[in-house]
Fold:
Amino acid sequence: MIVRKSQSDLEKMRRAGLLVHEILHKLSAMVTEGVSTWDLEVAAERMVTEAGAKPAFKGYYVAAAGEKYKFVLCTSVNNEIVHGMPSQQRILKAGDIVSIDTGVSLDGFYADSAVTVPVGPIDAQTERLLKVTKDSLEMAIEKCREGNRLFDICGTVEQHVENNGFSIVREYVGHGIGSRLHEEPQIPNYVDPRNENPRLREGMVLAIEPMVNAGKPDVRVLKDRWTAVAKDGSNSAHFEHCVAVTANGPWVLTRP
Ligand code: MF3
Ligand code: CO
Structure:
């Protein structure tokens, strides 16, 4: 069942969304050569706490890992796709890319967003990877309208990415979001005709999160049981926004 949110629920989600935006905006500005992913984690935890919010990921149980996640952020560098863990040993260097993914709960509602940030100058192909992934999210956001269907979102991401010669990661998907971090429906970044294809309705809130590899789509999870990497070592990009379906069209809760 897909939970539809009231106007008052959406206003709470909006406040959570703006906090997530502010955190990612400030962390993005910190990203430079010599900064560790742990430095980002420390700054994020302080911002969440100061806002009177709770980190959504820290303490969240993930069955595939068999344990609770221990951090406020997922920081996934280069060929790491998602669920990279902040570490004092992981020092960013020029030419890297880092996906910063975080969520909070505020007043009973969640928001979740991710950006992939270049560390100094990056090569042209990686520049293109970031642009294509971000554009695929923007095009999917535009589909978040009453009367459209879930597959309009999934198919838009899939086609834009594949038309540009990159690969969709299939093992991880977007999700509904609200009073829980993960709600129905699952939102794959590709059309799987075996899935249901519900009509989009006012009040639905969708966390859309394309994960795109520059090379092959194949994924491997490291021995730490969390870090998902592109098997062929190619770079991977990830962008995410929470989008409400409203009478006035898509409302991106996680940006101003
Ligand atoms: N943004 C991811 C998601 O929506 C990260 C959550 S995994 C966690 O699923 F374990 F870190 F919580
Ligand atoms: Co998410």
